[in-house]
Structure formats: structure tokens, C-alpha cells
Design brief:
This protein is an all-alpha fold. The protein contains five helices and no strands. Helix content is 68%, strand content 0%. α1 runs antiparallel to α2 and α1 runs antiparallel to α3.
Length: 77
Amino acid sequence: MKKNVGKIDRVLRIIFGLFLILLGLFQLKGQEGEVLGIIVALFSLVPFTIAATRICPVFAMFRISSITKKEKQKKVG
């Protein structure tokens, strides 16, 4: 698959992933064994994986890319 996640999008996904971990483990008491908290914390793997691979399947399905022209030029040059 072609990369379709830009730098700003990656940073936002990492922040969102961290938010989900904190929400799941502490607010929803996942560290105490609450199932909902554990599920929310595990769901944080989705934005982390997308940020790491720079490939978003939903973006690909709709032919969307958050990579800026500057990022494309850096890649080529």
C-alpha cells in the first residue's frame, strides 16, 4: 500500500493513542481489571500502528492523503 499519512496527522494520531491509553488505564480503571478500560487501552494500538506505518486503510479506501506537497518533495529530493 502507498503511504498516505502526513507528519501532522502522525503526531495527532500518537497524541490520540496516548490519550486512549490514559483514559483506558486510569479513568476507566483498566489497570484494576475493568474490561472497558482494557478494551479502550488496547484500541490505542490502532492509531499507533497507523502512525508507525504511515498507512491508513480508511484513507486509502477514499483515496485521501494527508501528506503535504512539501513532504512529497522531500521524499523525492
